[in-house]
Amino acid sequence: MRILVLHGPNLNLLGQREPNVYGVQTLDSINQQLHSQAQALGVEVVCQQSNHEGVLVDWIQQAVGKFDGLLINPGAYTHTSLAIADAIRATGLPTVEVHLSNIYARETYRHHSWIAPVAVGQISGFGAASYRWGLAALVTYLQQSSAHSPST
Amino acid sequence: MRILVLHGPNLNLLGQREPNVYGVQTLDSINQQLHSQAQALGVEVVCQQSNHEGVLVDWIQQAVGKFDGLLINPGAYTHTSLAIADAIRATGLPTVEVHLSNIYARETYRHHSWIAPVAVGQISGFGAASYRWGLAALVTYLQQSSAHSPST
Amino acid sequence: MRILVLHGPNLNLLGQREPNVYGVQTLDSINQQLHSQAQALGVEVVCQQSNHEGVLVDWIQQAVGKFDGLLINPGAYTHTSLAIADAIRATGLPTVEVHLSNIYARETYRHHSWIAPVAVGQISGFGAASYRWGLAALVTYLQQSSAHSPST
Amino acid sequence: MRILVLHGPNLNLLGQREPNVYGVQTLDSINQQLHSQAQALGVEVVCQQSNHEGVLVDWIQQAVGKFDGLLINPGAYTHTSLAIADAIRATGLPTVEVHLSNIYARETYRHHSWIAPVAVGQISGFGAASYRWGLAALVTYLQQSSAHSPST
Amino acid sequence: MRILVLHGPNLNLLGQREPNVYGVQTLDSINQQLHSQAQALGVEVVCQQSNHEGVLVDWIQQAVGKFDGLLINPGAYTHTSLAIADAIRATGLPTVEVHLSNIYARETYRHHSWIAPVAVGQISGFGAASYRWGLAALVTYLQQSSAHSPST
Amino acid sequence: MRILVLHGPNLNLLGQREPNVYGVQTLDSINQQLHSQAQALGVEVVCQQSNHEGVLVDWIQQAVGKFDGLLINPGAYTHTSLAIADAIRATGLPTVEVHLSNIYARETYRHHSWIAPVAVGQISGFGAASYRWGLAALVTYLQQSSAHSPST
Amino acid sequence: MRILVLHGPNLNLLGQREPNVYGVQTLDSINQQLHSQAQALGVEVVCQQSNHEGVLVDWIQQAVGKFDGLLINPGAYTHTSLAIADAIRATGLPTVEVHLSNIYARETYRHHSWIAPVAVGQISGFGAASYRWGLAALVTYLQQSSAHSPST
Amino acid sequence: MRILVLHGPNLNLLGQREPNVYGVQTLDSINQQLHSQAQALGVEVVCQQSNHEGVLVDWIQQAVGKFDGLLINPGAYTHTSLAIADAIRATGLPTVEVHLSNIYARETYRHHSWIAPVAVGQISGFGAASYRWGLAALVTYLQQSSAHSPST
Amino acid sequence: MRILVLHGPNLNLLGQREPNVYGVQTLDSINQQLHSQAQALGVEVVCQQSNHEGVLVDWIQQAVGKFDGLLINPGAYTHTSLAIADAIRATGLPTVEVHLSNIYARETYRHHSWIAPVAVGQISGFGAASYRWGLAALVTYLQQSSAHSPST
Amino acid sequence: MRILVLHGPNLNLLGQREPNVYGVQTLDSINQQLHSQAQALGVEVVCQQSNHEGVLVDWIQQAVGKFDGLLINPGAYTHTSLAIADAIRATGLPTVEVHLSNIYARETYRHHSWIAPVAVGQISGFGAASYRWGLAALVTYLQQSSAHSPST
Amino acid sequence: MRILVLHGPNLNLLGQREPNVYGVQTLDSINQQLHSQAQALGVEVVCQQSNHEGVLVDWIQQAVGKFDGLLINPGAYTHTSLAIADAIRATGLPTVEVHLSNIYARETYRHHSWIAPVAVGQISGFGAASYRWGLAALVTYLQQSSAHSPST
Amino acid sequence: MRILVLHGPNLNLLGQREPNVYGVQTLDSINQQLHSQAQALGVEVVCQQSNHEGVLVDWIQQAVGKFDGLLINPGAYTHTSLAIADAIRATGLPTVEVHLSNIYARETYRHHSWIAPVAVGQISGFGAASYRWGLAALVTYLQQSSAHSPST
Is the whole-model pTM more than 0.80? Predict the structure, then answer.
């Protein structure tokens, strides 16, 4: 089982600036934790980050046939990118959306997600741990889906 | 560490009717799984369900001093109860909000949560597993909070 | 055939105060008329009133297996209770919604009903007679449904 | 006592097409049932259908002095015709509004009725039976109104 | 100089019913006053009433080449008919819009006029006198327009 | 019979600048025409202009007992001054609102008038002639009101 | 294959007035072009125009069994007529909606079409050529539909 | 003269938690101050708190005939309970609404009160003193009402 | 302790006109009562009224260093004046806002106050007594503030 | 005459996945059909696809001087990209917008197009044939434009 | 070249109170800096402040013929005064709008400016330096305008 | 001191097309002027343009440690890119936003800027000179910031 992990815009800055806001953990560190967790779960993860909406769409499209699921933190594109949502919809890739911060405790314009309606589920507010529970939830979801008939 | 698990209105019907919609798992079964998971995590859980907004507020208030955190699926009150949100705000009880279904893939009026802004985080869309990741996330959050200075 | 009749908040005040607004007929009198009408129709009715949203949800849940249909005047909860609507949706109890006054000739906030989308139909504006036509319509609906295949 | 029954646009298609949506009952059949019911109630009904907003306004105006009440299913004009509502308001003809489908369970733009605020009451969702309860409710309303002082 | 006077839906009921609301003056009486005033002004008026949006559009179209201006009280179609506004726009007929009542002191949905943006001006609130000032204003406008270069 | 004529902000610039927009007629010229018309009607007019909302409120208050009616072009305060509307409401001075331009053919924010709901009527779009028909309409209204019982 | 072509309100004025806005081509000329094109395509067209919403609804209803498809430019009724949309929905007649002008480059209230959701497709902005591509598209659609199973 | 004092949800937590937000004064202390003030004013007060919307409705209904006025801080139900507002409306109990905090300086969703339109008046922002001025204002209002004819 | 009392537009008309609406008490009478109450409380009040937004802003600015608090009924400027709110914000003068009528039981546009968010608190609906409780509340607030550290 | 054909995000997936939704025709197949049609029309087409908003803007800019017109299906960027609309506006390239599906029969957020106001026209709902009619319409438009004076 | 500098309400308080918010620089100091800058630029400035909307309108009107341009910080009137905007529009005085604070980083109601659409440009967020760049920009604009044909 | 100057989408077209709209000055010319101005101010500027949202985000991120401030004209991304705003927020780079045109005098959708709330200030409407005052303002801001403690 192979999982694609996508980080959206500005997430590459994690840990480098404003540690009081973004925490001291870097994106590399999060990715390493995901690799460790994946190993423990017996799955494989590939982690990529881009500030480009189009690149994220490209990667989601290219994941078809290569990955079984998508774990995505779309960053600011959560709130502005219908193209990414359409890519998930079109590829049918089972997707879990995660957010470091609790987006519902922030500005109103961060309460709406274009991605959520096409995702299996959404996890927000647990910092780097959002990725952890997201990966666990996605793997469990995929295991149950493959055990039974494909869900809609 | 003691966790209060609250189920809101109509969740007592789980598994009894409309299994194609709500799944075949009953609320008792979910509660038993939470107890097992709690035991494995070395924490204690108490699970309660009510159809009454006021009872849920009562229970949250009474949890002060007896519980370290709150795992709540507020059901329909997610979208209509400021009183429950105020109870969480007033008691300061660390709270994780969970939903069986992906509320962002449903009717628009289910996209707004009064609870989310006062919760640590929100997990929705993984069926009964939402509770599972919610409990894990809450316990991890509480362990980290007690290890460090109290978070805001 | 057994019909549960639920009266929502403040309907117990009928006939006791402000007769120019609410008429001189008490809720007891309406209930007695419903019993007489039920007898004539060969069905049984049980009438209950509560000011508590949670109690109304409890009663709707408990009606499963005991009643064949629900005749409800949700009073103010018509406009604020998603929990009652979800209870009707979850139990699948065929429901007719009635209102004494014509809610569309009153304040704008009384024009929206959470209950209507999950009801078979709605009757408003005929005073106590709204219950009368509501009971007749519900019984006819149930007779036709049982004669044919179950409707959705 | 004479009752005018008006059917709005597209209701003449009933029973001829899409029986799974509109049922197998034709408008003629509904009209015949209304005539039978009227005979049983000791009143007279005249049934007319038009696709023209202006014709419906004409008929409502011409009903003054000839009819005691109006039973109307305004079809699509329910949601777009202030002219019909003004005709009812100007003539003061006691009016009951009926709908075959539960308009509150359909598209949002079908939730607003221009007619409802000027009607005695509204009945929706019971198929052809909506007319039946509507006629019964209108006749009862007119009998009570003539027995007492004229209502506002 | 020839002026077409158009009365919209329900204005034919003037003076016949609800004199406390609509006054005791009939539409015939208003038309006679307009004829007298026209004679005094040395112009000709033709007065017509219809409850049909389409008929009003027909008449406006047919006025081209036969009339120099249009005095219109569009009644309820003021607030719902883009077709009448488009007819005025397309024919380029100089138009004055009048209302018996002060539409800005009534329900909010009567505050918006589709006709006003394509009219020379609007007069509302003076009862039958709104027509009087409207005719005077239209004739003056046309006299000034013909004296100078055509206005836009 | 004495009529107070009030001109709101920027109307003192009439005829001095942008004649293609505002016409070549100055405010003095309009006032002189109103005086001539008043003489012909056998009434007296006093004309005043101010750019100050407070001054306009003062003048309306001071008109009580000295004037029988108010002819007002509130200029930009039409759209922003509840204080002027409240002054008219509080003094009960019969008021006609006039506008040089057709405010409904301009920017959306000029479509709402705070003054209109407390005026007898409104005339807009006839240039300086709006004042002329406004004065005529006000005087006629006052004559009819004094001849009969006071209207509401 | 027979196609009904319906032109809505004010389209009969084409070419007669404001040629700089509406072009010099009359509706007759457009109809003749459609007849020529139909002949070339081996289909038959019948072209009708009305300013009456009700007449357009009548014609759509009467087309059932006589025509295979509908090409409609609903004019102003595009934006105000639910009745026409319901007629198309009820008859199930495959429909292509066309507009001379690009309605999305005009006033905001012309951006919403009641007809579009029940049409196969919409073509706007190409002047008289909108009809041409609309007829071609409709005929192609009908040929493909009849060749295969009926599309949804 | 007897006054019912009702405290809504979460007000029982006053003084026990978050003293920097809610102050150090407990609800018991507020109630004692109200008793002292009542004694000084020569009236009687009964103070009750509930987290249940339905219980608050029950208490308001039961106050009829036993109490002369209602002093209420509806807490979160201020913003969500039409049922409580309807209870006040239906019982006709003269009511003063009070709030500890200035609700207009807080979140937008706390700016709307369902209760205010059915109350005599509202006092907000003075902490525990809001109750004090509320009781004084209610008693004065009731004394003046009983001295004169009943107010509307 | 010195308190500035400001009355906004049209409040100078109190008691002179429409006594059934505004009561028989004049503004002078209210001011005299405030002076008596102030004497009893051992404070000084200065009362001023203006119809000018700018004058009210001037007076608030000039109060700095001369007055300890502001009691204001901003009249219509409550709903339209950000300048007055900014003056209170900029001067930091502790302010209590009062209204004679219950503004929440009136037109929707009177429900929003620009002043409330910068006031200590708001009292509305008690007629002239609103000033009385407002003065008492302001003096108590100032006494407590001076006894402790300055509030924010 | 040279036409640039641009396909927006996710259109490269056509025919590869979800054939029941997107049809079995691939983007290559559509491009080949366009080439054939172009040859028949005596024009040249160049077809390009990108998931990148910026790349689409680049291509539109680079088309200046190389292409005579633009045929674009902007995919999801239809609804979110002002940058693409500005590129078309800035380059002045005559543009036809096409959509495979009827965007007005889909989610509300797909009803608004940033591109439409700067396009000559829009064609939606005819599947791959939308491109076909779009190319024909664009070529005809360009031929007519070059034959006459440039249209606005 | 002569420039009128207008400061709106509450700007006279600058530097006197809340230096942490408004800075320590007084309005006099800003005016002196503007005089020095003007001297260096070879232009003349006259600086005036008022809390009165009407006075600001007066001054703008009186500037015609005496000043070449207007530099204005309208303070709170930025967001509420159409009268000031109309004065600028009517006089045609080239205007630059400045703000000390970044109004787009403050409350939502400060994001809309009535003045901006009639200004040459807007500068906000640079504290006292906003005036500096505003004066420089206005002088440059005027120099370029006088060198070439008058801009629109 | 080093300043990064970023030009958003379509700004590379300046001076090449539509000189009446965009002026005759090319982007190169603007950049050269900025270089000259920078030299005069003793700072260094690097100017870059991209049509890609992602590239702009990349450049802002890469500016950290290399540049002291950012001067940006985000073009169309002003109104649609939360990602660019988040990049500025995350990097903390002092930013001045400039616009050639007065965006508040254009379409409503150009009035909202995602960038403004995270910028020091905004300058719009002065054509190429907007950059000039923007660079001056940014350099002054940075000099003052480095002279004192860091501003928030």
Answer: yes
